[in-house]
Amino acid sequence: MNDNALKITPEFIIELIIRRRWIILVPFFLALIIGIGLEIVLPKKYQASTLILIEPQRVPQNYVQSIVSAEAGDRINTLSQLIMSRTNMEKIIADFNLFSDPKQAGMYMEDKIKNLRERIDVRVTRDRGGADAFSISFRDQDPQNVMRVTNALAASFIDENLKVRESQALGTSDFLDSELEAGRLRLEQVEEKIKEYRKTYMGELPEQLDTNLRMLDRLQENMTDRQQSIREA
User: Fold this and answer.
1) Which of 50, 112, 164, 224 has its CA 20 to 30 A from that of 145?
2) pTM above the 0.85 mark?
3) pLDDT at 155 over 70
4) Where are the alpha helices (DSSP H) in 20-71?
5) For the segment 34-48, what is each residue's pLDDT rounded down to a tens digit?
6) Alpha-carbon torsion 196, 200, 206, 212, what sign?
7) Where in the chain does DSSP place strands (E)?
8) How far, rounded to the nearest angstrom, does the alpha carbon of residue 69 sit from its chain's CA centroid?
9) CA 207 to chain centre
């Protein structure tokens, strides 16, 4: 084994760092200066997020079946399409005076809507308890707009969900009403047929058997008495 082989020791490493310190310090300070410069020059971006929990049906399904059969992810995707619609995006832009900067004055409405949609993020999550939830995030340079638009989006999601549930509940109620009316009509038809049957076969019905037998017994007794009277006469 070569005795002149280089031995790496802590003292050797410290000495090497001291001798080559400029190779380490110069890139470090350059990166620090560039980072500070970018922090000053680049526009600041703010992001706000809100988490909405999806509560399951509280009434046991043994008593009332749930009117919502779709999965949480499917329902949220449907609501997202409603929220991201052109009408709702235009309303948010008008309500919160977005794209009011003079540099953005020449933007077409389609470009504004596209830019707004790209800064909105909706994600389905699941908490530790296993409950379904979804988060809504929005990014913008104005922190006040970030907060207000995020709250407006959350409120829109809740309102649209209530509308969908109300529509489903009304549809279920109409269906039950129609089924109840059809059942009532069928019951009336059956009762009418029973009445006609009773009129046609009066005295021959099964529930009249006991009455008929008692009447027969009385008639036989009367006939026996009359026969006895005739014989005596």
Assistant:
1) 164
2) no
3) yes
4) 21-41
5) 877 766 666 678 888
6) positive
7) 46-53, 120-126, 132-140
8) 9
9) 56
